[in-house]
Every structure is written in C-alpha cells, then in structure tokens.
Write a structure and sequence with these properties.
Elements: H1 10-26, H2 37-56, H3 61-88, H4 93-118
Helix pairs in contact: 1-2, 1-4, 2-3, 3-4
C-alpha cells in the first residue's frame, strides 16, 4: 500500500462518518458522563480512524497491520461501551444496536484489509 492513501480506503471513510455518529449520540448523554462514557466512547471511536491513518503512513505492511489491530481493538472497546450505554438506557435501543452493528462491520472491514495486506 502506498503511503498516505488512507483517504481512499473505504474503511477509513466509513470510520470518519461513524465518529460523527458517536459524537451525536454522546452529546445527548447526561452531563455526569462528560468524563466517563462520553469521553471514553469518543476517544475509542476516534482511535479507530486515527490508527488506520497512522498505520497507512508507516512504510511497511507489517507496521500497518499492527496499527490495524489497534484500530480493531478500539472497535471492540466501542462495542463494549455501547453495551453499557444500552444498559443505562442512554439513547434508543434501536439506535444503539444500529451503532453496534456498524462498528462490527467496520471491524470486519479492518480484518479484510489486514488479510489483503498479508497476501
């Protein structure tokens, strides 16, 4: 993969849109969550897209793979955070479930890109 081509990656593009969705959802949370779930979900979601971008500029597929793994781990963190959101009844269950499905798809896309880089 050529360096600095991350903007062309569908997974990066989707992740950018997803960040906006998480920011919108968390903006509706109670103020008491400002330094709890709001901050954690925003950081984890942002970490997905930042790791994809950073890894693409690493210069080697092996290093890019390492950053993709970190991005996927952040995706799993988002899934867990959203499960907590559901338990606390922040946002509609349907909206939260949709966001969980979407980040699961992003994680699958990261897995697919990882496989492509290994071959």
């Amino acid at each position: 993969m050529k360096e600095h081509q991350f903007r062309k990656l569908t997974v990066w593009q989707r992740s950018m849109i997803y960040v906006t969705k998480i920011y919108a959802l968390t903006s509706t949370f109670p103020r008491v969550e400002q330094f709890g779930l709001i901050d954690q979900l925003r950081r984890a979601t942002t970490s997905i897209v930042l790791n994809i971008a950073e890894g693409s500029g690493s210069g080697s597929n092996q290093e890019f793979l390492r950053f993709l793994m970190m991005a996927k781990r952040s995706g799993y963190e988002v899934i867990t955070g959203l499960e907590i959101v559901k338990n606390l009844h922040y946002g509609s269950e349907k909206d939260v479930n949709d966001l969980i499905r979407e980040v699961e798809e992003i994680c699958s896309m990261i897995t697919g890109l990882s496989r492509k880089l290994r071959s």
